[in-house]
Amino acid sequence: MKANLSGLPPPPLTVSELINLDQHGLKDLFGTLPAPAADELDGAYHGRLLTTAGLDLVPEILSGPVRDLLQGELMPWRGKRFEKGQGANYWLRDRDGIDLVTFDTLIAPALDGSGDVFQLDYDVERNPRIARRITGEVKRDADGLYLARMNYRIAGRVIELLYFTLEKQA
Q1: What is the overall mean pLDDT for the chain?
Q2: Is residue 87 assigned to a domain?
Q3: 159 has which bridge partners?
Q4: Domain tally, the chain
Q5: Strand, helix or coil for residue 32
Q6: Residue span of the structural domain in which 61 resides
Q7: Residue 84: phi, psi to the nearest 5?
Q8: Could you report the per-residue pLDDT of 148-158, keeping only the tens digit for each?
């Protein structure tokens, strides 16, 4: 997505509009969004997976059911919790789910150079080695709605694995 003719970023999108974007559209939109403040995300957020790397390359007859499964209620990942520069993913239930894989948070430059992001740094001692290669990045789409992506570092490269939303829980 590109800025409109006035040079302003596009208006915020809803979760249902974000779901309709492919990985390239989400990347373009992500580059136009602002980073939230360092303390803005404290609290519990419901997560929704939007797309994963490579899904756009698979024929719709196969990718459609996979996307439906990943975006549906059977997906065990439910969201994230943030508090004072740290956070955790929660699984199986909203808000009071099982915390697995934790991260530290900070404002940092995006790995692709698209401005500052609220970074989720999984390279912390308490995580398994495989999780330490993850770097999450979050930008604000609208009040209480954030567009995020998960990157994975391997063999000196950074791979964008997936995009997801985080929505503030009441």
Answers
A1: 82
A2: yes
A3: 152
A4: 1
A5: helix
A6: 15-168
A7: 50, 55
A8: 999 999 988 99
Q: Is residue 91 part of a domain?
A: yes
Q: 10 lies in a domain?
A: no
Judged against a pLDDT cut of 50, whether residue 45 lies above it is answered with yes
Query: Which pLDDT band, with edges at 50, 70 and 90, does 15 fall under?
Result: confident
With H, G, I as helix, E, B as strand and everything else as coil, classify residue 84.
Answer: coil
Residue whose entry in the numeric block shows the structure tokens 């993850």: 134
Q: What is the C-alpha to C-alpha distance for residues 55 and 61, in angstroms, rounded to an integer?
A: 11
- Residue 9 within a domain: no
When pLDDT is averaged across residues 75-81 and rounded to a whole number, the result is 80
Question: What CATH number corresponds to the domain at position 105?
Answer: 2.40.128
| Residues 2, 95: Cα–Cα separation, whole Å | 35
Contacts of residue 85, defined as CB under 8 A and 6 or more positions apart, other chains included, come to 38, 104, 105, 106
Full-prediction pTM beyond 0.85?
Answer: no
CA 28 remoteness from chain centre? 14
- Of 80, 76, 72, 70, nearest to 101 by C-alpha is 80
Q: Of the candidates 113, 147, 115, which has an alpha carbon nearest to the alpha carbon of residue 29?
A: 147
pLDDT of 101 higher than 90? no
